[in-house]
Amino acid sequence: MNKAEKHTRKAAGEDPIKRMQIMDGARQVFMRMGYDAASMNDITREAGVSKGTIYVYFQNKEDLFSALVELEREKMLAATRLSLQYDTPIAETLQQYGVAVAKLLTKNGYVRLMRILLGVIDRIPEPSGNFLSCMPMTSRLVLKEYLQTQTSAGLLDIDDCELASQQFVDLAYGGLIKKQLFCQASCEPQIDEIQRVVHSAVRLFMAGYGKDN
C-alpha cells in the first residue's frame, strides 16, 4: 500500500459514506416493514453491504435504529430553525414558519416514523422519546425565542411567550399532524390546505398578540 492509499483509507467503522449507505438502507427497511419485522439481514440486502460490515458500524438493530432516529432528529432541528426568519414582518414570518414546519411534519415518511416510534417507545425509550418530544418541543422553543425577541422590541404584546408559542403550534399545524398520525387523512395535506390553516392561525394569533390590537 502506498502513502496515498494509507492516507485516504478509513479505519474500520469510520467511513462516513459507508455508514450513510447502511443508514439509507435501514431507513428503507424500517419504513417498509416497521421495527419489529425488520432484520439485520433485510438491512444488509437493502444497503448492499455484508453482514460483517454492518456490525463494524452498529452493534445491533436497536443501535442502528437509534442512530437513524437521531439523524432524523438533527435534520428536523436544522430545518425548523432555518424556517424562522427575523428580518420579515411578523405575520409573514409566522406564515412561512407554520407552512414550512407543517409540510415537514405531515410528510408520509415522518408520519410513518412517528407511528413506528410510538410502537416501540416502551422498549426503546430514549431515542423514541427524544424524537417524539423533540418535534413539538423544538418548534415551540424556536418560536418562543422569536416571540420573545419581537416582544422585547415592542412589536408584540405577549406576557407568556411559552404559552403563546404552544397556542400557535396547536393552531397552525397540530390538527394537521394528528389527522395524519391517527389515519384520519388518507394522504399528505395539499399545500393549499396547509396555507389556509396556517393563515387562519396567523390571523387569530395576531388578533390576540399584535401590538395594535
UniProtKB/TrEMBL annotation:
SUPFAM superfamilies: Homeodomain-like (SSF46689). The keyword Thylakoid does not apply. It holds the Pfam family TetR_N. This is Transcriptional regulator. GO terms for molecular function: DNA-binding transcription factor activity; transcription cis-regulatory region binding. Keywords: DNA-binding, Transcription, Transcription regulation. The keyword Nucleotide-binding does not apply. The lineage of its organism: Bacteria, Pseudomonadati, Pseudomonadota, Gammaproteobacteria, Oceanospirillales. It comes from Gynuella sunshinyii YC6258. Residues 39-58 bind DNA. Residues 16-76 form the HTH tetR-type domain.
